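User: Here's a protein and a ligand (glutamic acid). What would the complex look like?
Assistant: Let me lay out the input and then the predicted complex.
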Amino acid sequence: MDFFEEMEARIPKGKVRTRFAPSPTGYMHVGNLRTALYTWLIARRHGGTFILRIEDTDQGRLVDGAVDVIYKTMAECGLTHDEGPDIGGPVGPYVQSQRRALFGKYAELLVQRGGAYYCFCQKEDEEESDDADPKQIKKHVCACRELPLDEALAKKAAGVPYVIRQRIPTEGTTTFHDASFGDITVENKELEDQVLLKSDGLPTYNFANVVDDHLMGITHVVRGSEYLSSAPKYNLLYEAFGWDVPTYVHCSPVMRDAQHKMSKRHGDPSYEDLINEGYLTEAVLNYVALLGWSPKGELAEREFFTLPELAEVFDISGISKSPAVFDINKLRWMNAEYMKKLSPEAFFAKAEPYLKKAVTNPAIDLHAVAALVHSRCEVLSDLAERVDFLDRLPDYDTALYVHKKSKTTLENSLESLKWSLDVLQSLDTWTNESLYDALVALAAEKGVKNAIVLWPLRVAVSGKASTPGGATELCALLGKDESIRRVEAGIALLQK
Ligand code: GLU
């Protein structure tokens, strides 16, 4: 067996194999997380293999610790890989920079097969763009393409610097199929003889990804739709090598609004940002799954899916080709639903660090605070602002006492706070229930609606228009002394 036959023999066959191939940027873009998720789901749905490949050939863009961010994010999300740099596998190495030696060999092979040629036009070399943006490409045309191979090899042997370019047919069309975009046909004359191997012997991304995907036996290539315009050239490469073309699944961008793609540079959150803001990983994954994919049939209306549930029902045909808009309010709503599903202990474990930031008074029972905010918590980072009044009564406007629906005015609020003060001072058992019973009895005795008593009391102890609990729950949390102190302060304020 020669080298190439050996490489072929290593490729696992007969099973779905997908890969997530991030470039280590230091964070996980929401669009990348979605690509990772869909890629993982396709593998799991079909009992296949999910591969992690690190694409670090663009050394200029490398960020310290960025590969660790990828491992950490994948593990946190439960997107476990079956082959990858850390665990190895049959077709490693799984880090692109460690595969360098391969690409030169495959580029030479392609020259032998007629799909590529040596190009000695040095000056064009630098102008070449290595990324997928078609606007960047200036079509290269040169005489090297027609140079007989033996002459080219002689020049190469004589040490003339060269690049290897793809030989694109000058006539005809190339058609490729995408699972969501369908058949796309382009005129070959529109395609450039792109550089595959640079003069330093390193591959361009457009070459490396094809060689790697083939040598890793990838059956489904899931990637952003910014790669659609490169797909015909990839197809021609597969064909020139005599390799099977994988199934392409291009995903439309995740948008901030109708015009703009989400972008970290413009302040849109990455996965890590969302987690730091207090979103739950499960909620983010669920939301991201539905950004560009929808279930069908009886599941069509369903919005809540765990990762294992998604792995059972995910279907490529449900991926949409229209761009999806990232709606933070929808995510907040979904996150709140996931919060509600947490047990009180699990919620407390997540909420505690956020609560501690706002409530430093050790007399206040954070478990009780957590219980109060649990059912209405959308995002953990909102908690501090909702409970900070427990630590310190904020300055507030007496206008808060005036509430139409409760029929409270400045005058009757003052009166009712005075009544409440007496009741609170004489109350021995200080619980939500005992407070409630005593204050409801007070309202009955005075012949007024409960709200006449409870509204002003809630304002007095919180200084806020909206609080995570009612007057008696807040008094129970604050304790007798602090509650009384606040009611006295309220009376003083209203007497001014
Ligand atoms: N490294 C590429 C990126 O992060 C991956 C593109 C692909 O999946 O082929 O954009």
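Summary: The radius of gyration is 32 Å.
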